[in-house]
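Example 3.2
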Amino acid sequence: MNFNQMLLQKQSIVNKRLNELLDISGIPEVLHNSIKYSVEAGGKRIRPILTISITEALDGNILDALDFGCAIELIHTYSLIHDDLPAMDNDDFRRGKPTNHKVFGEAIAILAGDALLNFAIEILSQKAINNNNLNYIKAINEIFKASGARGMIAGQTIDITSENRVLSLDELYKMHSLKTGAIIEASCTVAAYISGREDRLEEIKQFSQHLGIAFQIVDDILDFVGDEKKLGKTVGKDLKSNKATFVTILGLDEAKMKAQEHTKKAIEIANGLDKTGFLSKLTEYLLVREN
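Structure, written as tokens:
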């Protein structure tokens, strides 16, 4: 099986499990429709695929890793719904479709995001109860630190308050290590806890940090030169909002070099983590993505 086939297989497994987890009753129909609209809007499911792939490489429990990865995907989806709101980035399109608030209104979009975060907590806490496993509790703690006020939300706050302000390269790295990188890092490091392999934790952190930065730099490049139709979202918004990006600070050519530098380091570490080569190929794939 080649890389593309393996990627499609993993995406299919993740999508199937997400559908099962969201097959819930007892909630208002409009809220359920709003949740499913954004979860099913597309996306490559990179975060859960990282979780299950690294767990697989460490000989951990793949079924449990799948639920951890899906919970992270729900958190990621909630963050996108809220990020698109008029009070935040004010986007009309996400993955080629109207953003959640454009279809369901701002109030329902906010509530859908809130519900997704809480569903993630339900899934993970139930997993810890069922397994009575301290390592799973450590993994859950890692996820919610990454998605909270010391992680993703902190990065988003810095991003919002930094408009029309000149940032240094170090400040930009810090912002994106929180806004984008923290959840990517958690997607990877939870695999060490699930597998009982905390001895590999530092190695996995290094991989995820290089991957997260490369991922963000590519995002900045695509916002500068990307094709809106291929990306499925508005481009050029960072420049219009006068936001600091790797392109505005470094220039396009140096930003591309930085992305390649971090990708190379991530691939080197990935080759030591995963002997199948899937993880290194996934890293390469992310560098040349269109959305």
